[in-house]
Specification:
There is one protein chain. About 40% of the residues lie in helices and about 15% in strands. The protein is an alpha+beta fold and about 150 residues long. The chain has one domain: Nucleoside diphosphate kinase-like domain (Alpha-Beta Plaits). The chain has a four-stranded antiparallel β-sheet with strand order 2-3-1-4. Its cofactor is Mg(2+). One of its GO terms (biological process) is DNA damage response.
């Protein structure tokens, strides 16, 4: 089983979408193993978005991500990184299909409701940035036998 990092951004938190987003992951059969709500520091966001440092949109993006609380989560399951990305939809909500989280709730690229890891490698890196090992729960879901062969 792999893990992924999903964050509900300040716009998603302010709009009351946290439970709706989490519910979609639970209903899909993914297991929640980490959750916290926090106001992210500039240092954490700079590390998280390190590939964008120096780009023209970077300061505005960090400012937005610091504008309110973020709900950071870690989900576990088979192919959860790819499936999570599919559930979120394309980064630009106007390109996202209806039925995806961004397609249903996003309107603007700068307010796209949530972040999801784009690869197993970035998921591992992001999880380590946002969570200490002891903040992640290792547990067996009773649903496992109903989800996987």
């Amino acid at each position: 089983m792999e893990r992924t990092f999903i964050a509900v951004k300040p716009d998603g938190v302010q709009r009351g979408l946290v439970m709706e987003i989490m519910s979609r992951f639970e209903k899909r059969g993914f297991k929640l193993v980490g959750i916290k709500i926090l106001n992210a520091s500039e240092e954490l966001l700079t590390k998280h978005y390190e590939e964008h440092v120096g780009k023209p949109f970077f300061p505005k993006m960090v400012s937005f991500m610091r504008s309110g609380p973020i709900v950071a989560t870690v989900w576990e399951g088979k192919d959860v990184v790819n499936q999570g990305r599919a559930m979120l939809g394309k980064t630009n909500p106007t390109d996202s299909a209806p039925g995806t989280i961004r397609g249903d709730f996003g309107i603007d690229l700068g307010r796209n409701v949530c972040h999801g890891s784009d690869s197993v490698e970035s998921a591992n890196r992001e999880i380590k940035l946002w969570f200490k090992d002891e903040e992640l729960a290792n547990w067996e879901s009773n649903q496992t036998k109903w989800l996987y062969e």
